[in-house]
Amino acid sequence: MASATAPPAAGDTACVLDRDGMGALVRELRARGRTVIGPTVRDDAIVLAKLESAEELPYGWGVEHEAGYYRVRRRPDGAAFAHSAGPQSWKSFLHPERVRQWAADRGPDGEMTVRPERDEPPSFAFLGVRPCDLRAIQIQDRVMIGGPHRDATYGARRGGAFLIVVECTEPGATCFCVSMDTGPAARPGYDLALTEVVDEAGHRFLARAGTDEGAEILAALPRRPADDLTRTRAREDVEAAAGRMGRTMPEVDLRALLAGTLDAERWNDVAARCLTCGNCTMACPTCFCTTTEDVTDLTGDHAERWRRWESCYDLDFTHLPGGSVRGSGRSRYRQWLTHKLGTWWDQFDSSGCVGCGRCIVWCPVGIDITEEAHALHQESLDGQAGTEDGRP
Amino acid sequence: MTAVPLPYRVTANRPESADTRTIELQPVAEALPVFAPGQFAMVYAFGVGDIPVSVAGIDGSALTHTIRGVGATSRALCAVRAGTQVGVRGPFGTGWDLPSAAGRDLIIVAGGIGLAPLRPLVREALSAPGTYGRLNVLVGARTPADLLYRSELDGWGHPYCGVTVDRAGPEWTGNVGVVTALLDQAAFDPHDTTAFACGPEVMIRAAARELLHRGVPAQHIRISLERNMHCATGHCGHCQLGPLLLCRDGPVVAYDRAKPLLTVREL
């Protein structure tokens, strides 16, 4: 949130924007010096990119998802936000894949001076944050700036970011935000929340502010008071979305399930399919792991420290002088899944999964996190049944 | 400073063994907060990289590190000349927390380079006579030539300081065998003992098993663990051991917490 003040009641600011109002919203944000990032169609995908105008939004585009499958497709209704997660997430902007952290110079007598990177990031406005992705941002907040060591790069980018959540009315076949309790309705943490409504009464957005800055911006836009029909349709569409999830997680304590299945046979099964390519970790909106790179110029007296994304699927990820701790694909997939659904709780007091489905879509062999969780649950039930029968 | 290294001047670099050296560092200007025994620093060799290194000695703002040259950065740090500068971040991680063992017998078990983080612990115990019970120091090394701090070892154990090696030539008249065998010579009341162990993980597990067998409770066995580490600030994800981020929740971990994690292969 751009402002730390308590959100006013949603009813105070609820109003309706039409497509011109959306155009005015982007203009207003840009006039305030914001760099507006939102969805747009590029390279046969709906990507997140800098928007010059609201006309770049993917009006009339949707997506088809399945495990290992993603296609954009035309929508007859002209909706801009009737699509679920694309290949990127907001971490590309808040936790960039490659950043310089500091530079050092060595003088003639060997003296070292170190200069921290002065990151002066744009003042972001994120337009079209899905509720699951809002939770993902909040999860990365805990990791990057919620502990004793505050990451300066993330903090500078996150601190000024203005978040416009668009509630989800069109979940995809790989979505399971209901299982992870992150959507499809907007939860607190936004500056503005929108719900897109397309019906016989027209194409419009129910808008309400979550912060003072959000209310201020809404007040500057051409808008009309929220009418009962729009409010009702918006609520019904979001409620209907909750019933249209393409995937579900087993309804068990996932943290306990993962803690109790470290020796499961299922890990061998998934390891036989997993390519350990790391796509799931790159697409995941909460995966935060990085490595460091140290470089020098040709004189050897100027050095820089860079940080870039890395994946726990990389063999070198656990390198020690005696070899890698997690050498097998089995152990690396197990690390990712147990961390995401289980040990994330121990480390950061929340789940690491928001149910966005990206890891399922962008897995080249279509490994499905929900299917793996169900299989582990089934194996744990079978094990318990065996115990009750007196079998080992 | 935990994100950006502070310049430290190398005041000494002396050999410990064929591949291991001890370097002494003094802050050039600003000093890091005082380290506690068991904590570690990220030590940066200019242009090469930084690695986690436990403190082998703490004297005000001066730091001692014992480093085995096994990779690009550790070899570069072994090669630093007195008068040059390195970068240091820290302090990071959990310490041995010796004061919480006041009044209890102490057993310190070290294997190889694992003696380095235990050295300031031994010194802390020796500097407070009467505060702790009996001090037993058990040191293992691959060969006599690999023994660290040879000139200091004699004064370390009250009543017992044992040294053993895996392999030795005819000139060696001391113990040969695993370090856990020295426990038979140690003097301690297992129910009133706190143990500290660092070394190869297989040694740590063996030491813990023997200590448990002799009646030392798991929560009174503290071990120091090693994993790959890049940031030391809980952001890079490399040092995970199940639920633990070892840069934050370790490196010193009580064995009751570590045991279930160390028995899972490739965790």
TrEMBL record, chain A:
The 4Fe-4S ferredoxin-type domain, residue ranges: 263-294, 344-372
Pfam families: Fer4_22
PROSITE patterns attached to this UniProt entry: 4FE4S_FER_1, 4FE4S_FER_2
Domain of life: Bacteria
InterPro entries (alphabetical): 4Fe4S_Fe-S-bd, 4Fe4S_Fe_S_CS
Keyword Transcription regulation: no
Name recorded for this polypeptide: 4Fe-4S dicluster domain-containing protein
Phylogenetic placement of the source organism: Bacteria, Bacillati, Actinomycetota, Actinomycetes, Kitasatosporales
